[in-house]
Amino acid sequence: MGQKVSGLTNKVTRSVSSLFSHSEETQESSLATQRATPFVYKRTSSMFFDEEGDLAHEFYEEVFDAGHSRMKRQYKNLRPQGEVELPYPKLHPDLPIVMCELEAIR
User: Fold this and answer.
1) Rounded to whole angstroms, how far apart are CA atoms 19 and 90?
2) The whole model's pTM is what?
3) Helices 27-35 and 2-19 sit at what angle, rounded to 10 degrees?
4) Which of 10, 25, 75, 89 could form a disulfide with 29 if both were Cys (CB 3.0 to 4.6 A apart)?
């Protein structure tokens, strides 16, 4: 098991260090580098579209029961928004690299 983890770390470390190198690369190797980037540019949205095209996290409708009104959550006829671009890139949460080491505070 240790070999798999260290092998994975070596591959990720090499691909991360190649992102910041200034050497000229062929088009093929630059495409391979883009696939191994530690950054996330898109995420799956948690919002939905309803029948009218409105966008929200949850939809409710007003229901009248025996003189009382209550709000009932809608589950039908909702479409997920899909992937959304992030305003700025974030680091992937599974990145196995120590980004910063701090000394202990005394």
Assistant:
1) 15
2) 0.53
3) 120
4) 25
Residue 14 CB coordination number (10 Å): 11
How do residues 51-95 score in pLDDT, each as one tens digit?
A: 999 999 999 999 998 889 999 999 999 999 999 999 999 988 887
Amino acid at 22: H
What would the two tokens of residue 22 be?
A: 């200034």
Please report the DSSP string for the chain in residue order.
-HHHHHHHHHHHHHHHHHHT--S---HHHHHHHHHT-SEEEEEE---EE-TT--EES--EEEEEETTEEEEEE--SS-EE--EEEEEEEEE-TT--------PPP-
